[in-house]
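Hi everyone,

Forwarding the result from last night's run.
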Amino acid sequence: MEMKSILLFLVLVQGILNIVMGEPLYADIFRCKKDSGDFLPKSTYETNLLDAVKIASEAAKTSTYFYSKGGWLVAAESFCAAYLKHVDCVSCVNSTFPLLLKNCQNKKHALAWRSKCMVEYGLNINLSNHDHWFVAHETSANKTKDIQGLENTMKALVDKLLKEALKKKENIGRYAYGTMPYGSRQTLFMVMQCSYPLIEEDCKKCLLRVYGEMKPCCSGAIAAATLTPGCYMRYAHDDFRSR
């Protein structure tokens, strides 16, 4: 009887930890745009690409977002989570560009979301209206028992943070972070952010799209994120900013 009580206690503790702690979801996601074509080694394209990547990597030392162009051909950009410490932003950008070049060898257009930063390079990067050729989801395998409560709270928190995110902030862009309690002693943590160049209307469209994408992919998950070139949204049941 005593052993059964101990086992029951351990199961309850694990259940609480699953709700409170969540899971680390920072996967390394690399995408090579298949229809972008290939460039030849030692070509003008490769030279321009490496120049653009070098400039964007250097610029990460002073800004959470940077766009650069190598020659007239290739553009590169880097984009860090606004809550990230600057030294971690620099580290993430500088380590991700080489990995992206390796994973998408000779591809003209590629993008990576890794840890808490995004890097992209390509022939045409539309800064004013990002296309959504890249959409990625990270989701916890653990599910909440209060799915309806979670979904209602998500909607309320999205509505609240969207208003804050659309107010552009110097050196950060359109960004918001917040929390909301619900159910039995649970708290939802959420962040949303747009790439710096996006105007208010495009940022709103992007964030509403990722929220719409998140619902069918991640319903009931205790932690999830939807990532695109133009914006992202992430939620969990703990403060993920310190991970």
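The first strand starts at residue 29 and ends at 32.

Cheers,
N.
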